Amino acid sequence: MNPEVRGALAAYLEQRRRLGEPDLVLHGLDRRQALARAAQTPRRIVSADSPAPAAIPADLAQVVGDLDHDQLRDAALACTRCRLSDGRQHVVFADGNPEARVMVVGEAPGAREDATGLPFVGQAGRLLDLMLASVGLSRRESVYICNVLKCRPPGNRDPLPDEIESCAPLLKRQIEVVDPEVLVGVGSFAARWLVGRKGPLGKLRGEVHSYQGVPLVVTYHPAALLRNPSLSRLAWADLQLLCQVIDGADSAA
Ligand code: SF4
């Protein structure tokens, strides 16, 4: 059997176990027959018009609530909770230091991120690194970076509400295990999810919010800055605000 298929099925079964379904009934097939059947089954082609995924089990937050960072990453890598699992090359879980004081949350992987499995790569990623460096932060040591969605929406379309809802327990637990001192929401979808309020990014930026008691600054996505350089002045002001929040966390420590 193709080792890739076997690995994917094993990861799926492990994920179901973690979600509280230890007794899997494979319609009368034994394990060998089930694996053989899985290897022969073509992947389902799913588009944005596909039916919404099943509702999140009420206990999902509790299930992922027990996971540490590496277990959470493994659960995300095996996740098939929404339609985006069908078209992905890689689950884009995170980059940077899981013990960082600053956590950056973007929107969703793009084509390069999907190809590499890393968030914020390519031109926008380099700009984000420069923005962080301008306030003395480095992706490798002092920042943890992830996205609201871990899988790429096809054609880089906007995330759909049910996809965000499906993925949210992973991000919530990710924030809990990283336990940052400061959060940075990058782009409108991340900003809205973290702030918990609708509205254009221009109305959400420029103030310090709170996510579960963690200070939160929101700003423009670097891809938006590349498209519209006139926003750079506002993004720079947001970085200065971020500096003040980090300084405040320093003096409180
Ligand atoms: S986007 Fe999130 S919920 Fe959907 S399959 Fe990927 S990891 Fe799972």
Tell me about this structure.
- The chain is α/β, with parallel strands linked by helices and 253 residues long.
- It has 2 domains: 1-42, no CATH class; 53-252, 3-Layer(aba) Sandwich (Uracil-DNA Glycosylase, subunit E), CATH 3.40.470.10.
- The chain has helices at residues 3-18, 31-40, 60-64, 69-77, 111-116, 122-134, 161-178, 188-195, 201-204, 222-227, 232-252; strands spanning 95-96, 102-106, 143-147, 182-186, 209-211, 214-219.
- The chain has a 6-stranded mixed beta sheet, with helices on both faces.
- Strand 5 and strand 6 (214-219) form a beta hairpin.
- It is globular.
- The relative contact order is 0.12.
- The model is unreliable at 15-58 (pLDDT under 50).
- Iron/sulfur cluster is lined by residues 76, 79-82, 84-85, 91, 149-151, 163, 166-167, 170.
- Residues 76, 79-82, 84-85, 91, 149-151, 163, 166-167, 170 line the site of iron/sulfur cluster.
